[in-house]
Amino acid sequence: MFVYGLIGWTIKLSLSDEHDALGNQGFAGLKNFTQLFTDDINDRFVHSLKNLGIFTLVFMVGALVMGLFWALLLERGVRGEGVFRAVYLFPMAVSFVASGVVWRWLMNSADGANAGGLNRIFEDLHLGFLENPWWTDPDWGMAAMALPAIWQLSGYVMALFLSGFRGIPAELREAAAMDGASGWKLYRHVLFPQLTPTALSALIILGHMSMKMFDLIMSVSGAQWLTEVPAVYVWQTLLTSDFAKAAAISIILLLLVAIVIVPYLIYNNRVERRS
To answer: What's the pTM value of the predicted model, to 2 decimals?
Structure first.
């Protein structure tokens, strides 16, 4: 009732002609969906989808690489492993709103004498060539917007990979060592293939989280055209009482998330049945 019922109501609304607060004026079919791609002002929806694609790609790759790197360091055994795990996982305890406010300051676009945040650090270290406008850059703004998300969730990915490493039987490592596999060969041909299900799970989780990202982006940049994604577009559309259009955007977002999650669920169910 509270999930599928509301989804059904949203689908009905997306097929209506309710573009103001006066109520439903009739059935519009797929008109709201086609207009998003063909008749939206300044191709706003297409622009938001491109931003989402850039954000998702940078976020997923960055979080996976950093998470795997930290897991490798801890998997090899270090003193104070529990402390490092806590440090890496701590950002997850911070809300996206709080971290967004901090990263808005860190990614201050001013440079030179007016620099702040990361640009100020680069200026003080005489690394001025590293200063950049961050999220205000029209070309790489969305890539910079993914940095706070990578910082916040790479620790979670680290925990997934670390549990995957710890779940590999010791006998497998010993057998590989007896066959002459050591160092990089051990990881490349024995351990990493065992982490494929873990990596797939991490990709699915990160992918669907990035598609619904709203609070972090709003906290860093606000409702800006430059960094607008579909979730922010929905919110702004609702403020104008264009309920049918907002519902259509929401359904497209739902379909994008389903495209990512449903195949994984089907694959996972088949694997469980075989085992």
So the answer is: 0.90
